[in-house]
Amino acid sequence: MGQYSIVGLPLVLLLVTFCMRRSAACVESCQCNQTGTRWTCVGDGSDDPPVFSNNITIIRFLEISQYNISALRRDHVGDNPRLVRLLLNGNEIRSIEPGAFAGTSHLLWLSLNENSLREVDAHSFADLTMLKHLTLEGNEIETIGDSTFQSLGELRRLDMSRNRIREITGRDLRPRPMHP
Question: Does residue 154 form part of some domain?
Fold first, then answer.
């Protein structure tokens, strides 16, 4: 029995080392904590944002700030089903493509402050059904489209301060309750 434990020990250590290296592997322009669950990526305003591999699924907190992103796409965030907090501040984002957040099904907090968004609509946040906090402060939002927040049944806090809202086309901006 002792022989089995000794033989199995190197294999266990090898697997633990591999998992630790993989989870802590950070893309070049980011800083990460030791467990790989918290990533901070800050550019200088002219850089392209980091590219995230779809096999990085342990991230819980992700900040991508000060990059030159005109249209937010799904590949900017990747498939991160464990992600709960996402900060995309100061990126010059002008639009959010449909499905941009499709890989972030458990996101609770989203910050899109200090970008260049002019309009938000039903497709902007459609995949964020668990979202509780949404901040859109300091954008150039002029129009809030019909049913923009309808899929956000868990939303508790919305900050749209310092925008240029001129038109609200939706009759009902309240989120649809997720639970009957």
Answer: yes
